[in-house]
Amino acid sequence: MSVTVRFAPSPTGHIHIGNVRPALFNYLFAKKQGGNFVLRYDDTDVQRSKEEYAVGIAEDLKWLGINPDRVEKQSERFALYDAAATKLKDAGLLYACYETPEELERRRNRARALGRPPVYDRAGLKLTDEQIAEYEAEGRKPHWRFKLPNHVEGDPFSFNRTEVHWDDVIRGRQTVDLASLSDPVLVRADGTYLYTLPSIVDDADMGITHVIRGEDHIANTGVQIAIFQALGAQVPEFGHHNLLTTASGEGLSKRSGALSIRSLREEGYEPMAVCSLAVLTGTSHAVEPAKSMEALAEMLDFSGISKSAAKFDPEDVGHLTAKLVHDMSFADVADRLKAEDVEGDEAFWSAVKENCSTVSDAKQWWELVVGSVTPEIAEEDKEFIAQAKDLLPQEPWSEETWGEWTKAVKGETGRKGKGLFMPLRKAITGLAHGPDLKNMLPLIGREKTLDRLS
């Protein structure tokens, strides 16, 4: 069976770098194995899910270079979930509970006070028909819990240590004791499904072979394996990677907009810089910019992923972006420069790219070439600039013109080093820094240079 993985974001906000890490791990793993990647929107929460967010997620993934082989929406698959819930109810594995959130919290607090784990005691299984009728008369609606196989057969109240094992493709052998967990709620009192059941049903129906996700799901895995087995479904392989945090160690949140892909894109960062940092941070591989998804897939090694949280510093995205930009050919950026109204050719790009942190930075240098500049000429340099202007060579100009001109100016004025070059740079560009003038001068041309030296 070919590898099939999935990424299942909730379209309730913009995805951030923390969401993209598992998306990339899944996508790169599938492509390296010649498999398939499914984008599956977890939009069962119809109140919070919005189409605009689904569209935004698709745009962000496309910008990153993630192209799904299949796209699904859970909101269109409720019939499958209903059938699975009915199957579990008929098997006596999904049972009704009527406690309110406040009542459940009081029970948990009482268990803690007595030194017991706050595990649900399966009180719902003890309800008589009369008690259920009373709750219904009060207007209570039941939520539905899955009965974990963590007890003596025939006696659901005799909890036994029940270990679930799996060979995690990232973390190695893992064990979860089901007796330490409460029976999970699969269906809310309002009839809506929590994440668990739809996810399992879809994984089984779509032939998902590997579930690769954050380490915060490790405890859930034992429960989910039990549900897969109760439904008679093939259990996929699981892999749990470390989580990304902000540079200060805080968790990432869609609601705060922290490091959203949209914001990183708007900052002009390169998608492969974002992908490289999201994938390689917190691994044994050096964090360096990959030029393509194929190259990044070759760098991905699950055995080298740390078990500690990985801090993501957005400044590092800038550093990696700059490295990529400096290595780009004119062919790589020609269309993007046109979109920025930059009409410079290969000579222009070669002249300025080392001074660009992003491709869009080229626009400021293009404006310096073709636009107006406010020369910066100090009072004590006015005579020097006038002498230099008189020595300005005739066109045509080449990369040698700057050296020839400054050599002549040095001979005439006796200036050298910074005292020679800086006043000329400030007069011609209005700046104390920038691309090498031996490359820029031919682009600016003699007429504009004369005008700026005036």
TrEMBL record:
The keyword Ribosomal protein does not apply. Keywords: Aminoacyl-tRNA synthetase, ATP-binding, Cytoplasm, Ligase, Nucleotide-binding, Protein biosynthesis. A motif ('KMSKS' region) lies at residues 251-255. It is found in: Cytoplasm. Monomer. Belongs to the class-I aminoacyl-tRNA synthetase family. Glutamate--tRNA ligase type 1 subfamily. This is Glutamate--tRNA ligase. It comes from Pseudovibrio brasiliensis. The lineage of its organism: Bacteria, Pseudomonadati, Pseudomonadota, Alphaproteobacteria, Hyphomicrobiales. The gene is gltX.
